[in-house]
Structure formats: structure tokens, C-alpha cells
Specification:
heterodimer; A: 190 residues; mainly alpha; globular; B: mainly alpha; 79% helix
Chain lengths: 190, 179
């Protein structure tokens, strides 16, 4: 992330200086900082709602039940957390939200990250299963991409949902490729 | 079938909203207190991501506002021309992993100019929906647990995006030839 951040900032500044775009750069950067705060404020309510419901599901035993159902499928993807029902439950809830396109995907995803951290202890480095979860979430395999479909409908498409099949296939391939890359990287870099 | 899928999320939401608290209540969990405790935890989680989000948003807006993003798209379009990908959609490929709202804006422009049901409009929609915003996901997920060394998470996500785009492109080709 260090290198990525530096590259973004330095290349931006160099290009702005070279093209005389400095004023646009200034306003864009300030707007970026403002947008981050606005995003977090906008997300706060959704987060509190979903983590609240997750807590209820957790204490009533629903999360444990969920992890038992999904274990045959998700267990092999997360070899290091197999025996931790709470972690697998939170991870399962995240992935199901992703697939259904529910607003709970990020709140539950972060909750799952916190669970992994709680079990595995403090670490300044990313843990294997954390990266797996991030790769799956970033690939965004979803049976119904509501954002694009809403946009298509708003712009007068005759069949706004026709793209759902292709995006699902692309999302599935993206997930598999990301997981494969994760596997290769963790073997090679060890 | 399509209609059912389209509304699946809408049906699942109330089921969870009613079902989970009812089940917890039946199991003897103090529902109100537990929900509030969870909401408090949610508040902590979301605020802990703010510094990371500010950092990455500032970096990205620096890259975008300066015109560097446009330059990269321009060079990329030269590189990708032999593959037969229409140059109009290339900004989506470059923007999608970096900024979700940014690439949605680009997609919206293409759909407005060319129409959502034209072959170009279809391709733009498919590429937009193919993946999620990798930079955002990596930032917020690792930020929330205070992890700065993300190892190979971002490269792995970007490789996933690349294959997602390629698959989207191939499926689009099949769709367009099929009609």
C-alpha cells in the first residue's frame, strides 16, 4: 500500500505540474478528503444496523448454525480457520450478502475481519484468511448487479437486467482468478 | 426467473430483519440491549476506517484531478487496441478498480451517448458490473482492523479484476455475435 499511495500522489503531482493543472489538483484533493468523511457518515447508519443484527444472530446461535451449513463449500477456501465457528459464520454471512447484493456486505465483511483478528491475535501484517476474504469481496460475484441495472433502467433500456448473466459469469471468473493469484503469491513469497 | 432474481435481495432483507430478532427473542436473548451493543460496535468499526479512507481518497483524487488517470487511459488504449476492445470503454477498465462512483459516471456517459441497449452500451454495463472496487475493498477491510501491511492482497484483487474484464469481454462478444 505504501508504494501504491506514493505512486498515486507523486504521479498526480508531476502530471499536474507538467500540464499546469495545479488548481484542479488542489480542489480535487480537498474534495477527496471531504468525500471520505461524507462516505463514512453515510455508511454509519447501515453499519450500526447490520452489526446490531449480526450480534443478535451471533448470540442466538444462528451464526454458528450458518457456519455448519456452509462449511463443506467454504471450509477448503479458509484452511486456517476451519475449526472456528464464529469466524466461518461471519465469513459465510459476508459472502452470502455479496452474492445477493445486500447492503450488509461491507458491515459484515469488516465484522468478519475483526473476528479473524480476535482469534489470530494482534498482527501488523495481513493474515492469509483475511486476504482470501478481501479477494472474494473485491471480485464482487453477485447474481444481480443492482447499481448498473438501475442505471440502465433510468436511461431507458428495454431490458435492463440482460447484463446480470454476463456479469455473474465475469464475477465468478474474477473470484477464481483472484483466489488462484492469492494462492500463488502466498506460495512464492513465503 | 429474472424477476425473481431481481427482487431476491428485496425479499431477503425483511426476512432477516424480522427473523433474526424473533429467533433471538425466542432463544431468550435480550434483543434490544444486544442490538444496541452491536450497533455500538458497528460505530467503532466504521469510524476506525476513516483515516485509511481519507488517505486513499486523497491519493486517488490527486491521481484523477491532475489528469494522470486520463493519460494512463490514453496509453492503455493504444496497448489494448490489438485485442479489439472498443476504445470508448477503456476508461472503465482503468477507473473501475480505483473508484466505483468514477467508473459508474463513465458508464453512465457511454449509455447516454450510445444508448443502453447498443452493443457498446451492453459492453460498458457488463464491465461495470463485472467486479467490485478493489482499492476501496482493500482499504476499508484492512483499515478496519488496523493492518497497514496488506502483502499481496491488492495485486491478487487486480489480477481478479483483469480476468473478470476479459471474461466480460468474451461473453459480450458471444452475445453480440449471437443476435
Amino acid at each position: 500500500m505504501n508504494a501504491v499511495w506514493l505512486v498515486l500522489i507523486i504521479s498526480g503531482c508531476v502530471v499536474a505540474l507538467a500540464t499546469g493543472n495545479v488548481e484542479a489538483l488542489m480542489s480535487s484533493v480537498l474534495e477527496g478528503a471531504y468525500d471520505a468523511v461524507e462516505l463514512v457518515i453515510g455508511l454509519t447508519g447501515i453499519f450500526c444496523l447490520w452489526v446490531g443484527i449480526e450480534r443478535l444472530a451471533n448470540e442466538s446461535g444462528l451464526i454458528d448454525a450458518l457456519s455448519r451449513v456452509t462449511r463443506p463449500v467454504l471450509g477448503p477456501l479458509f484452511p486456517y480457520v476451519k475449526d472456528e465457528e464464529k469466524i466461518m459464520g461471519a465469513i459465510s454471512a459476508t459472502i452470502i450478502s455479496n452474492i445477493l447484493g445486500l447492503s450488509s456486505q461491507t458491515p459484515l465483511g469488516l465484522k468478519a475481519m475483526a473476528e479473524i483478528k480476535r482469534i489470530h491475535g494482534e498482527s501488523s501484517e495481513a493474515i492469509h484468511s483475511m486476504i482470501t476474504l478481501v479477494v472474494i469481496s473485491a471480485a464482487g460475484f453477485c447474481i444481480f448487479p443492482s447499481g448498473v441495472i438501475a442505471l440502465r433502467a433510468a436511461l431507458g433500456s428495454q431490458n435492463p437486467a440482460i447484463v446480470a448473466g454476463p456479469t455473474a459469469v465475469a464475477g465468478l471468473v474474477s473470484t477464481c482468478a483472484g483466489l488462484l493469484a492469492h494462492r500463488l503469491f502466498s506460495k512464492c513469497l513465503r | 426467473m429474472m424477476f425473481f432474481l431481481a427482487n431476491l435481495g428485496m425479499y431477503v432483507f425483511p426476512v432477516i430483519l424480522i427473523g433474526v430478532p424473533l429467533y433471538a427473542w425466542a432463544k431468550g436473548v435480550p434483543v434490544y440491549e444486544t442490538f444496541v451493543k452491536g450497533a455500538e460496535e458497528g460505530l467503532q468499526v466504521v469510524t476506525s476506517t476513516l483515516p485509511y479512507l481519507i488517505a486513499i481518497f486523497v491519493g486517488i483524487s490527486c491521481f484523477r484531478g491532475s489528469g494522470a488517470l486520463e493519460l494512463v487511459s490514453k496509453y492503455m488504449s493504444r496497448l489494448l487496441k490489438p485485442l479489439g476492445i472498443p476504445s470508448e470503454v477503456l476508461p472503465i477498465l482503468v477507473t473501475r478498480p480505483i473508484s466505483g462512483s468514477g467508473s459508474l459516471g463513465v458508464t453512465g456517459e457511454i449509455l447516454r451517448i450510445h444508448g443502453p441497449d447498443t452493443s457498446l452500451g451492453l459492453l460498458a454495463s457488463i464491465l461495470q458490473g463485472a467486479t467490485d472496487t478493489s482499492f476501496y475493498v482493500v482499504t476499508i477491510y484492512f483499515g478496519s482492523v488496523g493492518i497497514r501491511k496488506t502483502k499481496h492482497a491488492l495485486p491478487a484483487c487486480l489480477i481478479g479484476d483483469l480476468f473478470g474484464f476479459l471474461t466480460g469481454f468474451i461473453v459480450w462478444k458471444l452475445m453480440v455475435y449471437g443476435r
